[in-house]
Amino acid sequence: MGPWHCLLLLLLAPALRAQQQLMEYVERRLSLLEERISQWHDQSSRYSTELRDFKNQVLGMLEAAEKEREGMRTEVESTAVRVDRLEREVDYLETQNPAPPCVEVDETLMEKQVATAKKRKNEKYTKLTDCSDTIASVRAMKILKRFGSTSGLWTKDAAGTSEKIYVFDGTANDTVYVFPRMREFTLFSATRKAARIKLPYPWVGTGHLVYDGHLYYIRQQGSFQVIKFNLANKTVVDSSVFPAEEQIPVFGLSPFTYIEVAADEEGLWAIYATKDDEKNICLAKLDPTSLDIEQMWDTPCPRENAEGAFVVCGALHVVYNTRLPSRSRVQCVFDVSGTLAPEDASLVYFPKRYGSHSSMKYSPQERQIYAWDDGYQIIYRMEMKKKLEV
């Protein structure tokens, strides 16, 4: 090696050492960077695991919160039921009647009533008013709502001016719901908007009537009684054992009704049936003050396939259907005054809706019928005409 080579090596040695040191520095930095990347990867993996665990924990907490919310909803519903029960109990305490009178049956008086009524049985009726109308057809029908059981009764006061709606849910109970107006009854499905009247005796059937501030309802205790109940002071005014032996359901398709108390322009009537004339329906005129029977009639209207009846201007209208509910129709009319012959009466059909009527209450002031059809409350507006024009 010559002197020039030695001199060149001496000159390049520092540069080579510097390059080597730079390489070593770069390698150390790369190694450190790889180590940090490895740490970041480990931390990222750990964070991902922790995030997944946190997510699962949150989901578990949400499920637990949902269960607690469901439990709270159940408790709120239970509380609402208890509050509703408490309201009924408060209503009961507010409307608690005094001790009901002891209703004793005076056998002698009942025999006199039966004898007096039988003497006038089937006589021509002397009308109290100049009402000479009869039903020509159903002018309109309005379905208000569906409320309560499949069978029941709803009505207004047939003689007064009150707007209150009285509802008898079912065919046997002791509580009457009272809505202040038609609007409240139509808009609200619950009974919390209604007052409750707890009667001193349970009622049976759907033949009850609200007339001139009093409730006339049927009580069964061996024999059947008509109870006159004052709606203002919540007391029993009078009661009477219906003087008809061996009563049977008055309507073949409504076996729960034994007496139908009805009202028309002439006053109060009782529609019933006995085993003496098991095939046909009987009619009686009632004194609304004393509940005495003023007169009785055997009608030609059969019980079979009858589902309801009402009285218009002294004429009994019996509504018929079929065992499998079809279209209701007035197929038998009996006029106690003899003005309207049965063959001259209009055959009135009611629009077919849901089933069969469990009650039909005629309002002589409004000339319409409040009907209960398979749980639906319906109003039928009637088209009237003079009997002589039929």
Could you give a quick summary of the protein structure above?
The protein has 390 residues and is α+β, with helices and mostly antiparallel strands. It contains three helices and 20 strands.
What features would you describe in this structure?
This protein has 390 residues and is α+β, with helices and mostly antiparallel strands. It folds into two domains: 22-96; 130-386, Lipocalin, CATH 2.40.128. It has three helices and 20 strands. The protein has helices at residues 3-94, 107-119, 182-187, and strands at residues 133-146, 152-155, 165-169, 172-179, 195-204, 209-211, 214-221, 223-230, 235-241, 259-264, 267-272, 280-286, 293-302, 306-312, 315-320, 329-335, 348-349, 357-363, 368-373, 376-386. The chain has a four-stranded antiparallel sheet with strand order 1-20-19-18, with no helix packed on it. Strands 2-3-4-5 form a four-stranded antiparallel sheet. Strands 6-7-8-9 form a four-stranded antiparallel sheet, with no helix packed on it. Strand 10 (259-264) and strand 11 form a beta hairpin. The chain is rod-shaped. Residues 94-105 have low confidence and may be disordered.
How far is the first residue's CA from the last residue's CA?
Answer: 151 Å
Estimated share of beta-strand residues: 35-45%
Strand tally: 20
The helix content is 25-40%
What is the number of independent domains?
2
Categorize the overall geometry.
Answer: rod-shaped
Instruction: Give the mean pLDDT.
Output: 84
Cα Rg:
42 Å
What's the tally of helices?
A: 3
Briefly note the CATH topology name of the largest domain: Lipocalin
CATH architecture of the largest domain: Beta Barrel
H/E element string? HHEEEEHEEEEEEEEEEEEEEEE
